[in-house]
Amino acid sequence: MELLLRIPGTAVYDGLQFPGHQDADVDHAVAIGNVVYLLDSKLYRWGQYEWRASGEKDLT
């Protein structure tokens, strides 16, 4: 994470609650400009995990 913070305009957010699910969280969100990367540092079993957001350019 320290290396990411050296990039100008980068912000890191830790321990965010996952929208719509009481028990899930996003370990780290890294924002660089208008791009956001969600990083998982826990080991979950294989499967499909989705985040559906509302907006014109939001990704799933």
Task: Describe this structure as you would to a colleague.
By secondary structure, this protein is mainly beta. The chain has a domain at 2-39. Helix content is 7%, strand content 35%. The chain is built from 1 helix and 3 strands. It has one helix at 2-5, and strands at 10-17, 25-32, 35-39. It has a 3-stranded antiparallel sheet, with no helix packed on it. A hairpin with a 7-residue loop joins strand 1 and strand 2. The relative contact order is 0.19. The mean pLDDT is 77.
Q: Brief overview, please?
A:
The protein has 60 residues and is mainly beta.
Fold blueprint:
Layout: H1 2-5, E1 10-17, E2 25-32, E3 35-39
* Beta strand count: 3
How many distinct helices? Answer: 1
Q: List the uncertain runs.
A: none
Residue-averaged pLDDT: 77
What tags apply to this protein structure?
mainly beta
